[in-house]
Design goal:
The chain has no helices and eleven strands. The chain is mostly beta strands.
């Protein structure tokens, strides 16, 4: 079994920054992808960014230039540094881990609220 524990969400003012973390534990081996989706009220869950074991990254257009994803493979932890936040970034952010040939695991979600 794999468990994902997220941290770092909260309330931030427009223009501010937050750093999300997600630590994975359990049977994790081989190539995998870790990353973040988000779901805003009334909208579908959408990819924010992901990163492979080898460090290849992918970003949603809305995240490019403002968000940076990184990971520590030794700790099975992925980070999302979010800068220049605005109200449209308000959402529940979900961490995921995709294991090749096994499936995808999800965290419980962490709420990010951007408001003055």
């Amino acid at each position: 079994q794999v468990q994902l524990v997220e941290s770092g969400g909260g309330l931030v003012q427009p223009g501010g920054s937050l750093r999300l973390s997600c630590a994975a534990s359990g049977s994790i081996f081989g190539f995998n992808v870790m990353g973040w989706y988000r779901q805003a009220p009334g909208k579908q869950r959408a990819l924010v960014a992901d990163i492979t074991t080898g460090g290849r990254t992918k970003y949603a257009d809305s995240a490019k230039g403002r968000f940076t994803i990184s990971r520590d493979n030794a700790k099975n932890t992925v980070y999302l540094q979010m800068n220049s936040l605005n109200a449209e970034d308000t959402a529940v952010y979900y961490c995921f881990l995709g294991l090749s040939g096994v499936g995808t695991y999800w965290g419980q979600g962490t709420l990010v609220t951007v408001s003055s």
